[in-house]
């Protein structure tokens, strides 16, 4: 780990169990899995473990899972199509989902964070998802779908980027200094900007998907033991680091990521937002066939958002922006 600049005794690790069907597993099995991860990462300064899954379960099971992961539970949402079904029914899925959200609000006084995948099909519903999150007071993260994804979450990059950029900028202006609900990627991007302007509340940080050092940020472990830098690279089946079950490890992906870090630091260094963006996501570059060494193909969108954030910070004043941000 020292070879990639990672020192466990001064590093905090976040672990996410990811999968819609995870909550079908016995709670004792999940408890043992969590203990196993905690033991394996005991050398690190701190370990935060959570789960992202669907909420289609009994309220009793939901309470067990919520308590096991200390409330670090998230889900994905799709409130305006019938793509998600429970026992063949889109209505039953939504009713069960809404029931469990209400249960957590009334019994735990909490709302779960959610993510929404912005696809061609879902682009018209982004504003409605944001409005619903604000109404029901749950944090929301917007995630651009990959172009090569096989399924409903496909995004047509060439024809959709300008429309998506305009939509994001409009939503950003509606949210900034007005909403009381966290909304990503805008909050993360704002924090990156504020950290460079003297806000020390979060310290120095860098994480997916605004990074050029994937080899330092994390790993994604598949059920068969294969592991990659992230879930996106795992889905793309690119830069496999090895297999934990078979004790296989390949240093080549780390070397490729380190070379990207050096290359991006040169090619993007003249950009006024480079320190915030860090060249963006390697997986999106690979997804569009641009290779491992290029910047994120959503560069123009990110540039527009970071530029708008600069304008808004100047407009409202940094102290007022930090005060509002910390209230979310």
UniProtKB/TrEMBL annotation:
It comes from the Bacteria. InterPro entries: 4Fe4S-binding_SPASM_dom, Aldolase_TIM, rSAM_sf, Sulphatase_maturase_rSAM. GO terms for molecular function: oxidoreductase activity. Its cofactor is [4Fe-4S] cluster. PANTHER family: ANAEROBIC SULFATASE-MATURATING ENZYME HOMOLOG ASLB-RELATED. This is SPASM domain-containing protein.
């Amino acid at each position: 780990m020292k070879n990639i600049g990672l020192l466990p005794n001064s590093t905090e690790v976040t672990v996410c169990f990811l999968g819609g069907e995870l909550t079908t597993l016995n709670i004792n099995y999940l408890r043992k899995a969590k203990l196993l991860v905690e033991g394996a990462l005991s050398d690190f300064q701190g370990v935060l473990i959570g789960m992202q899954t669907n909420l289609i379960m009994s309220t009793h099971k939901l309470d067990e899972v919520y308590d096991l992961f200390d409330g670090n539970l998230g889900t994905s949402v799709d409130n305006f199509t019938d793509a998600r079904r429970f026992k063949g029914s889109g209505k039953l899925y939504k009713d069960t989902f809404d029931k469990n959200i209400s249960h957590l609000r009334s019994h735990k006084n909490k709302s779960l964070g959610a993510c929404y995948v912005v696809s061609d099909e879902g682009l018209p519903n982004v504003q409605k998802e944001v409005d619903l999150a604000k109404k029901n007071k749950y944090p929301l993260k917007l995630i651009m779908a990959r172009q090569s994804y096989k399924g409903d979450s496909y995004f047509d990059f060439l024809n959709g980027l300008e429309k998506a950029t305009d939509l994001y900028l409009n939503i950003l202006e509606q949210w900034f200094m007005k909403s009381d609900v966290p909304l990503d990627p805008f909050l993360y991007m704002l924090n990156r900007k504020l950290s460079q302007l003297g806000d020390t509340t979060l310290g120095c940080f860098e994480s997916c998907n605004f990074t050029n050092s994937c080899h330092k940020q994390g790993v994604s472990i598949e059920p068969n033991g294969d592991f990659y830098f992230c879930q996106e690279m795992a889905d793309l089946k690119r830069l496999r680091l090895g297999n934990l079950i078979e004790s296989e490890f390949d240093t080549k992906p780390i070397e490729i990521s380190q070379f990207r870090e050096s290359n991006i630091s040169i090619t993007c260094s003249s950009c006024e937002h480079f320190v915030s963006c860090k060249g963006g996501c390697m997986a999106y570059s690979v997804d569009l066939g641009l290779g491992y060494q290029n910047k994120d193909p959503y560069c123009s969108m990110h540039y527009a958002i970071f530029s708008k954030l600069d304008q808004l910070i100047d407009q409202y004043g940094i102290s007022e922006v930090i005060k509002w941000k910390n209230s979310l």
